[in-house]
């Protein structure tokens, strides 16, 4: 799997089976008549495996019955006009499975190289990965002839000139980026009918995240649990710890995505029980990819815009970028998730630091389904690994690995095979593997990406018999870094307003824990009023007064020291004495005693604070994480 050799074998087998259709159709056209040939053409257009099998049997039967001479005569029947077959090829390109059907038009490399047009914005066309791949494509030779010639469409021409004046090409690399005239590219493909690597009509689906998720679910690809908020029609209920859209509830933390695939203002909202706040994700700006806002708790659900809300999957701080080339090849890399702290780690060449991954069988099948569903020969998408499963959270279309010689070489070889099978199938049968005349120039990279995975000074030694061993787990004993002291205050209280907070519990003897922001704010207001009353007390010199006031002042100072965010303060109220209190309205004047309930009349008030990482502690944690990754990944 994931090798160009296997892809080539599959394609050659496919081409051999389909050749039986062409052979039988030529003979039917000559001997029986065009109507039977037209009927067979409809069978051929289906391109289903069952039809291909029938074609193979028909071809063998034809040779046995008519003899080899009739087969040779049928092979030399003149070809139909090129326009008819070009139309067939254009229809086949609507799905990637059909994009490798060989054309019946005779095309020889000796007549000249296949012209590949590069139709995209200048920034993409001149990027290092694109040039590396195109250089490798142009380096392919067979029998002394160049197989491909690349023509780059000028950006100004794309934006200003009509499609009739664009260069004519046989194959087309075209993909959307900011400012790209996608509709003009579609019109060009309709006019010239080249072989298109990435389906231009399906690229419109990539603009809408709703359509992407619907397409993925339709082909059985796992996506995160989500709800779609349509403006003006949904009923939204947002609370501290969840959001509910039309009866579908998601527990926070949740991810809020705009509907447009080009809008990268993605936000994450955390539950108040975990400190609340929100985090904004955005395209990398310098070394930042996200920013936390501790005082922003409400989503944009009431803004009147459409959004997708999905659960935030726990991915252990990484996400996976997958780059597929056709349905049988996929390259994967892991990077630090921007959700962690928003800091982008870069290597010595300034590229974002990534680590190559091996996809499991389920993920390889996901890559195959994504490529086929969206009709994108070269396609990148984002994968999240969470709790033993993998989910696709975004599909990007045409994407390149920025730092891998192997990927560029494999991509060029696979693009060569797809193009030749569509335009010149007989040539690829004779030359299944590409043979570059000279190695392509290295425009961007000098060092291997592996130097960033394991630094040169790493001294890990493989154990004896490592070839037969398998790493099962890594056990780490880790202690927190430098932090502020943890502190605690205890006091007994009979204050009714503090004891009334225990009424929120169903069990009068259960302790109350206060961590949520709104509950902490309510407690702060109660303590502030108690302090004011104590200061206005009639006997300010009693020992009891001073003890109670000192503790309340400490509680007030801790609660008001800084805004509530994160879990840096916690209050516990533990009942210690109870009394029976008659239920309101229970006395009816009869002989039965009135109903009563148990309430707390005294409790132990406990306030905990401190234990927060200092600046030194944060630096220690980052250093430990980087060292762990570089040494044990």
Describe the structure in your own words:
By secondary structure, the chain is α+β, with helices and mostly antiparallel strands. The strands form six sheets. The chain has a six-stranded antiparallel beta sheet, with no helix packed on it. A five-stranded antiparallel beta sheet has the order 18-17-16-19-20. Strands 4-1-5-6 form a four-stranded parallel beta sheet, covered by helices on one side. Helix 1 (4-31) packs antiparallel against helix 2. The longest helix has 28 residues, at 4-31. Mean pLDDT is 80; it is low at 34-39, 42-49, 59-104 and 443-460.
Summarize the SSE layout with pairings.
Elements: H1 4-31, H2 34-46, H3 49-66, H4 68-75, H5 82-92, E1 114-119, H6 122-125, H7 128-138, E2 141-142, E3 145-146, E4 148-152, H8 155-160, E5 171-174, H9 182-192, E6 195-196, H10 209-218, E7 226-229, E8 236-238, E9 242-245, E10 248-251, E11 254-258, E12 266-269, E13 278-285, E14 288-293, E15 307-311, E16 318-325, E17 330-336, E18 355-357, H11 361-374, E19 378-386, E20 389-397, H12 405-423, H13 425-430, H14 450-453, E21 486-493, H15 496-499, E22 512-514, H16 517-535, H17 543-559, E23 569-582, E24 596-610, H18 615-632
Parallel strand pairs: 1-4, 1-5, 5-6
Antiparallel strand pairs: 2-3, 7-15, 8-9, 9-10, 11-12, 11-15, 12-13, 13-14, 16-17, 16-19, 17-18, 19-20, 21-24, 22-23, 23-24
Beta-strand proportion: 15-25%
Count of discrete alpha- or pi-helical segments spanning 4 or more residues: 18
Strand order of the largest sheet: 7-15-11-12-13-14
Terminal Cα span: 24 Å
Classify the secondary structure makeup into a structural class: alpha+beta
Average predicted local confidence, pLDDT: 80
Cα-atom Rg, whole angstroms? 34 Å
Major sheet characteristics: 6 strands, antiparallel
Helix proportion range: 25-40%
Poorly predicted segments: 34-39, 42-49, 59-104, 443-460
Number of strands: 24
Shape: elongated
């Amino acid at each position: 799997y994931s090798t160009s050799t296997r892809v080539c074998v599959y394609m050659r087998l496919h081409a051999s089976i389909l050749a039986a259709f062409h052979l039988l159709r030529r003979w039917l056209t000559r001997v029986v008549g065009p109507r039977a040939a037209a009927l067979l053409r409809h069978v051929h257009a289906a391109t289903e495996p069952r039809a291909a099998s029938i074609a193979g049997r028909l071809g063998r039967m034809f040779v046995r019955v008519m003899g080899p001479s009739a087969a040779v005569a049928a092979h030399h029947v003149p070809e139909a006009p090129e326009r008819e077959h070009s139309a067939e090829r254009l229809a086949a390109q609507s799905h990637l499975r059909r994009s490798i059907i060989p054309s019946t038009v005779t095309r020889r490399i000796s007549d000249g190289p296949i012209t590949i047009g590069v139709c995209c914005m200048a920034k993409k066309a001149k990027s290092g990965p694109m040039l590396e791949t195109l250089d490798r494509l142009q380096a392919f030779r067979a029998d002394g002839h160049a197989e491909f010639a690349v023509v780059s469409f000028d950006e100004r021409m794309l934006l200003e000139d009509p499609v009739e004046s664009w260069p004519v090409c046989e194959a087309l690399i075209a993909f959307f980026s900011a400012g790209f005239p996608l509709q003009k590219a579609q019109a060009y493909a309709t006019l010239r009918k080249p072989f298109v690597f990435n389906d231009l009509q399906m690229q419109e689906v990539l603009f809408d995240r709703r359509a992407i998720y619907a397409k993925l679910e339709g082909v059985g690809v796992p996506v995160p649990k989500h709800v779609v908020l349509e403006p003006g029609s949904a009923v939204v209920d947002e609370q501290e710890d969840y959001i509910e859209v039309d009866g579908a509830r998601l527990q926070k933390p949740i991810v809020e995505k705009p509907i447009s695939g080009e809008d990268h203002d993605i936000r994450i909202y955390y539950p108040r029980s975990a400190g609340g706040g929100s985090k904004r994700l955005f395209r990398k700006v310098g070394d930042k990819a996200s920013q936390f806002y501790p005082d922003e708790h409400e989503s944009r659900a009431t803004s009147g815009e459409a959004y997708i809300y999905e659960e935030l999957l726990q991915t252990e701080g990484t996400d996976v970028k997958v780059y597929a080339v056709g349905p049988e090849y996929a390259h994967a890399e892991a990077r630090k998730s921007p959700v962690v702290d928003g800091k982008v780690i870069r290597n010595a060449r300034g590229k974002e630091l990534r680590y190559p991954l091996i996809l499991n069988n389920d993920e390889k099948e996901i890559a195959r389904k994504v490529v086929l569903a969206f009709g994108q020969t070269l396609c990148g998408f984002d994968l999240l690994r969470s709790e033993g499963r993998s989910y696709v959270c975004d599909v990007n279309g045409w994407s390149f690995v920025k730092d891998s010689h192997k990927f560029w070489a494999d991509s060029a070889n696979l693009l060569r095979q797809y193009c030749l099978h569509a335009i010149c199938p007989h040539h690829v049968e004779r030359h299944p593997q590409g043979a570059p005349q000279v190695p392509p120039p290295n425009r961007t990279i000098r060092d291997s990406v592996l130097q960033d995975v394991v630094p040169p000074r790493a001294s890990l030694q493989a154990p004896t018999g490592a070839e037969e061993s398998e790493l099962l787990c890594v056990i780490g004993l880790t202690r927190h870094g430098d932090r502020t002291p943890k502190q605690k205050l205890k006091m007994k209280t009979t204050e009714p307003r503090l004891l009334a907070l225990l009424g929120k519990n169903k069990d009068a003897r259960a302790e109350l824990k206060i961590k949520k922001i709104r509950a902490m704010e309510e407690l702060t207001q109660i303590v502030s009023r108690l302090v004011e009353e104590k200061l206005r007390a009639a006997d300010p010199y009693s020992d009891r007064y001073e003890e109670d006031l000192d503790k309340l002042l400490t509680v007030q100072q801790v609660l008001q020291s800084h805004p509530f965010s994160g879990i840096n303060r916690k209050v516990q109220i533990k009942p210690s004495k109870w009394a029976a209190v008659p239920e309101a309205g229970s006395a009816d004047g009869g002989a039965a005693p009135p109903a009563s309930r148990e309430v707390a009349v005294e409790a132990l008030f406990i306030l905990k604070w401190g234990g927060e990482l200092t600046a030194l502690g944060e630096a220690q944690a980052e250093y430990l994480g980087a060292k762990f990754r570089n040494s044990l990944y």
